[in-house]
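Q: How would the structure tokens look for this protein?
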Amino acid sequence: MPATVADISSALEAWAPPGSAQDYDNVGLQVGDAERTVSTVLVALDMTPDVLAEAESTGADLIVTHHPLLFGSLSSLTADDYVSSLALRLAERGIALYSAHTNLDAAPGGVSFALAERLGLTDVSFLDGFDEALYKLATFVPQDHFHEVHSALSDAGAGCIGDYDGCAFSTDGTGYFRPGEGTDPHVGESGGDLTSASERKLEMEVHRWDLGGVLAALRDAHPYEEVAYDVYPVQQKSTHAGLGAVGRLDTPEPLSAFLERVAERLEAGSLRYAGDEEAAIERVAVCGGAGADFIGTARRRGADAYVTADVKYHAFFDVLNPDGTAEMALIDPGHYESEALTEALLRDWLAERFPEVAVQRTDTTTSPMKHFARNPTPHPQAP
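A: Here is the predicted structure in token form.
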């Protein structure tokens, strides 16, 4: 069967759950019919008029972008505004738009991992895991249904710790209840006396964005008419979602050589940086897009250099020691330059999973920013 917009959306959301996006973000299907079949996908960092024209010329049914077109609500859908005009034109032409933004930043193998790979880093892990992302689910299951319920919760995403899945803990005990009139108890009789049952307490970790699906799976698999369970927060960082990435170069190199590496591999015409050009760079932290909030985290993780974008002037002082020397190099290649590789990341990921769909990367440079470099004034020759 041909793939639909919903099929592609579901696959992307299994990798980058919308619930892992930042609160300010707006991810997912932004324009279009989820049931429409898809033969061609165009991938771009941003939604622009040139990208739309390219989608029309290639017959694309779906555009997948990293940056959302729709961040806030629209009061009208007219041709009088940049965002509204693009949304209207997409709808009129029947082209769907899906965006995976900060949820793709937070996903294993997401934007920052691709950036780390592009810069040649190995042994890559999250720079900072998510706080307040984990819950512990505890429920009470008759022993003869324990494995069925455990399997259902595992299949729904519970019990993932690091590279392990199905992780759980159980203890045996006795449950007590009195079935009321009109109930249909698994054990005992409706309107009967206080009843006991041999039960097994099942405890599993659940990510915040998986909790709804896990609870639905629990209710479907559990034999009781009324399912008893507890959900409480776990005060530790998630290992399955985070922001930024940190790794190392196979061979240390001076900052001067590392700057050349960054500029060449990210196709950046210029870099803003702080640091000593002779300093040895081995351990490197990265964060695609605006990652200045993690400068302190990169220093605490022992990074010799941190590559991110949208760094304000005063933030460059945050890497300096009391004597004014740089403890860690801070490098800003530009927002677009640090995330343009997302196009290839999404193209390759989708092409592997939907071989029946033609997945193309845009030929358009979507950044609206341009760089002006003044020609240096020749030094007058000495008489």
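Residues 39 and 146 are 44 Å apart (CA to CA).

The chain is about 25% helix and 25% strand.

Upvote if useful.
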